[in-house]
């Protein structure tokens, strides 16, 4: 960290802090830290810098950009093209870059931390009610093979991200204590550690999921034996019944498409089961910090994403207090 700070300070000395533009700072920030980021984070930040941050904010000076201007030229312009959930992502990425400028003492504080971007069409549409979820899971059990059904059940009952589910190995499941440990993610780029410390977590699971995983483990042993292999605790949990190799991302997508077509339910993505898990817990009045720990988020991220759900509960709590006093 001290070496990086020294490098940054040397680079910044070439441009007076008061005249440093957003564009110049983004280049310094990216080139200094790019090798520390996961490949997906690096690509995500590179593209956001190139296509969103620099075109809209690049000409402004880091020291002079104020909150009003930022909202007008960046947030409001992005909202004309993208859904609120996507704009929140670009906003978070820019805040990370500005936090680095604060750490390097280019500016005294981050002016953009308390900006709230309301609304999310993605969240509003991309989840199921409890009744819809029952229909979805019943169809998955009836229509899909055991691998697809087990993945879907796990996503629904844990709120894991798709990549986290695909990254699970058998030694991540504690059948006796009924726990699952998330310590990696897997996608088309391969398996790797999660990108944030909050993503590392151990969560409790219920008897229904435990029984399904036990049943699926037995099936995996038999399937692997048919290919002349033996199940190892280090093996990825989810495998193809056709090849015995780890299941790919597209398998889950196609499974969702078939279920939605058959049931007539609204279209959701695998991530929609994560939103469903969160909204069900909120409806059951679980606090944000508990949900955040389960999902591998921060409480603030839960509030930013599901704040409107908590608003309804807040109104209920006011009425509940009045009713309790009987005044």
Low-pLDDT segments, ≥5 res: none
Give the number of DSSP strands.
5
- Mind describing the biggest β-sheet? 3 strands, antiparallel
- Looking at the overall shape, the CATH architecture of the largest domain is Orthogonal Bundle
Q: With helices defined by DSSP (H or I, 4 residues minimum), what is the helix count? A: 14
User: What is the mean pLDDT?
Assistant: 90
The CATH top-level class label of the largest domain: Mainly Alpha
Task: Assign the structural class, choosing from mainly alpha, mainly beta, alpha/beta, alpha+beta, or little secondary structure.
Answer: mainly alpha
The number of domains: 2
Helix content range: 55-70%
Verbal overview:
Helix 8 runs antiparallel to helix 10 and helix 8 runs parallel beside helix 12 (270-283). A hairpin with a 4-residue loop joins strand 1 (173-174) and strand 2 (179-182). It is globular and about 65 Å long. The chain has helices at 2-12, 22-33, 39-57, 67-79, 84-103, 121-125, 130-143, 146-158, 162-166, 207-226, 249-263, 270-283, 288-295, 299-325, and strands spanning 173-174, 179-182, 185-187, 190-192, 201-204. It folds into 2 domains: 2-118, Tyrosine recombinase, N-terminal domain (DNA polymerase, domain 1), CATH 1.10.150; 124-313, Intergrase catalytic core (hpI Integrase, Chain A, Orthogonal Bundle). Strands 1-2-5 form a 3-stranded antiparallel sheet, with no helix packed on it. It starts with a helix and ends with a helix. It has 14 helices and 5 strands. The chain has 327 residues and is mostly helical. The longest helix has 27 residues, at 299-325.
